[in-house]
Amino acid sequence: MRQPLNLSHLDYFLTIAEKGSVKEACQLIGISQPALSAQLSQLEEALCVKVFDRSGRSLKLNSNGKRLQGLGNQLFRIVGEIHDISRTRASSEKLNLHIGTLLSFSRTLLHEFIMPFWKDKKITVKVFENSLKELFEDLKHDRVDAIVVDKNTMSNGYHFESHKLSERKIVLVGSYKKFEKLKKIKITDLNHYPILRLTRHSQLQVNVDQYLNDHGILPNIVGEADDANLLRIAAENGVGLVILPYSTVKESIRSKKLKILHEIKDIRSDAWVLVKKGNPHRVRITHAVEHYGNDHS
Description:
Layout: H1 7-19, H2 22-29, H3 33-47, E1 52-55, E2 58-61, H4 63-87, E3 95-101, H5 107-119, E4 123-129, H6 132-140, E5 146-149, E6 160-166, E7 170-175, H7 176-179, E8 194-198, H8 203-214, E9 220-225, H9 228-236, E10 241-245, H10 246-254, E11 258-263, E12 271-276, H11 282-295
Parallel strand pairs: 3-4, 3-5, 8-9, 8-10
Antiparallel strand pairs: 1-2, 5-12, 6-12, 7-10, 7-11
Helix pairs in contact: 1-2, 1-3, 1-4, 5-11
């Protein structure tokens, strides 16, 4: 039986059309290639036409696909406007602002970003934690107004926009008590120390793993967690060394619970705020990004 066409099919098609391949679209969306290929097949079955010309693994929009791309983008703009109307509230009512973030994200940086919302008596802020893939879905389906993450996952999305919140300094830290007399640890010596690490749900850890691999380092992993704060506490207690953004550990460094043993300038981990273009809070969120940038420039 022919599959009925739905917005998810169209959403996936637009992502494939934008990226030019199923593989790149999968990396952006966070689903498997077979699953995304199945979605594309269902869309073409529902329309009774092919939307791509296929040559090996490459895809090229045909005339049907180009027309569908234009209509699809137009449809999602309209959906965004309808969503805006449905969420409009009287100025006297209190607004609910839903922010999604990663467990591994710096709580200090997140708090500083949403501070203007905390101070606004007309806004109630609700913060949710999830994996990057689930945050993407939450934002796409309007379960959150914005997500604060360490990867510019949807910067090229047709109905999303991204704002760079900050560039984060990455540091190797260890227990101050244990390493008080040690000035610095060479990255090439990390094989000799117990290491704590984030899970690969974090883009930072993906970058760290690549950096260590490039330097021929096989770390002795003694602990792994999604929560950067759990790793910070473990490092304070001498369980192992950990590589984290400075913003995550700066209070522990100031209070002499942790010590910086190496600043890793070759690892980038920028903080990004992503928001749907039709979201009614988009202007507020953009202003908060600008406010954070002005305060930390």
